[in-house]
Design a protein that fits this description.
This protein is mostly helical. The protein contains nine helices and four strands, in the order βαβαββααααααα.
Length: 355
């Protein structure tokens, strides 16, 4: 995808005016120029798969980064790839490690993710984005190509997958997964941003219609099947989940995606709850950080930076009834084990965690 924009999205904080993400009179177009270096078994790009060498930097607040956190957990790669967690907000320069003692990542020893980008390229001209995979020995970013990162975790890191890990990108389903994932990205993952960052009424109206046309398509597709592609969880489900889980807390109000709430779309609401209650999905979601990020960072949309208290999250734990459609979440495998102590969510931030 060859897109660029003068109004940067939330995970691209290189905008010139702090907190401004809309361009008056223009529709939102995402910058999709990423560092495309890959970490592979053959090390063709100079970075071979090697347990303990790399650190995944991924903010829980960001939907694109949340994907990589989910996939890493589903595949059991916690011992092979460490996880750095920036805080939920950033300034115009960079994501920062303000959740860590002294505001410094304990492995990389940096305060700002920007430092790892500049280790790779001192004149790096684009957004300081998450997720980013950092080469720990050099401290330099290897890649921030978020769609490829999760595919490579599923296909190149198989020697380090846990026993019973799911097949998230099985060869016989890749064409269908790619087709579905493309529509999910253009119309839904990015569609909510086209609504929220629209610079004109015309751009917003067009984005709104595209988004809900796609959500209606999903509602119809999932009415008769438990998962998006095949009868097990795949990459396609991971990609749509991170948008659906943010829909009512953020996109419905903050981004004006308000034809209806997710909780008012019976099939999608049940599908989202099914995934949320599946180990590896809901246990990565920090609703407090998600709301802080969007409502605090986007000051041109929410100048007061007031973070809403709602919505009520208890519904995420209600019965979904999707088991009746068949399917097995992990195929012939099994769920991941307990969340690692350092990566556990804070009580009050997620209904799965007792308060």
């Amino acid at each position: 995808m060859d897109e660029s924009t003068s109004a940067q999205p939330d995970e691209h904080p290189e905008h010139k005016e702090g907190g401004r993400y809309t361009a008056k009179g223009k529709e939102f177009v995402r910058d999709t120029h990423y560092i495309s270096t890959r970490i592979t078994t053959d090390g063709e790009d100079g970075y071979p798969v090697e347990a303990g060498r790399y650190r995944l930097v991924a903010a829980r607040a960001c939907p694109w980064a949340n994907r990589s956190i989910i996939v890493r957990r589903l595949l059991g790669l916690e011992d092979a790839i460490s996880l750095g967690l920036p805080g939920p907000t950033h300034d115009a320069r960079s994501w920062t490690f303000d959740l860590d003692p002294d505001g410094k990542d304990p492995v990389l020893g940096i305060h700002r993710l920007q430092e790892a980008y500049f280790k790779r390229d001192p004149d790096y001209p684009r957004g300081i984005t998450v997720p980013a995979v950092v080469d720990v020995p050099t401290g330099a970013v290897v890649t921030n190509d978020f769609p490829q990162i999760t595919l490579d975790l599923a296909t190149e890191w198989t020697a380090h997958h846990r026993e019973g890990a799911p097949q998230l990108y099985p060869e016989h389903l890749r064409d269908e997964i790619d087709e579905v994932a493309h529509r999910v990205f253009t119309e839904i993952n990015n569609g909510v941003y086209r609504c929220g960052f629209a610079g004109s009424q015309e751009a917003y109206d067009k984005a709104y219609d595209r988004l809900f046309t796609a959500l209606d398509w999903l509602e119809e597709r999932l009415a008769g099947q438990r998962y998006l592609v095949g009868d097990t969880i795949t990459e396609a489900d991971v990609r749509v989940f991170t948008t659906l889980v943010r829909f009512d807390p953020v996109y419905h109000g903050h981004f004006k995606c308000n034809r209806n709430k997710l909780s008012e779309m019976p099939v999608l609401w049940a599908y989202a709850r099914d995934l949320f209650q599946t180990p590896g999905f809901g246990d990565t979601i920090d609703f407090v950080q998600i709301k802080q990020h969007y409502y605090v960072v986007h000051t041109d949309i929410n100048p007061t930076q007031i973070v809403p208290q709602g919505p009520d999250l208890s519904g995420w734990l209600t019965e979904h009834g999707r088991e009746g459609l068949g399917g097995r979440p992990f195929g012939d495998g099994n769920p991941p084990g307990p969340v690692r102590p350092r990566e556990k969510l804070t009580p009050g931030h997620n209904p799965l965690v007792p308060g």
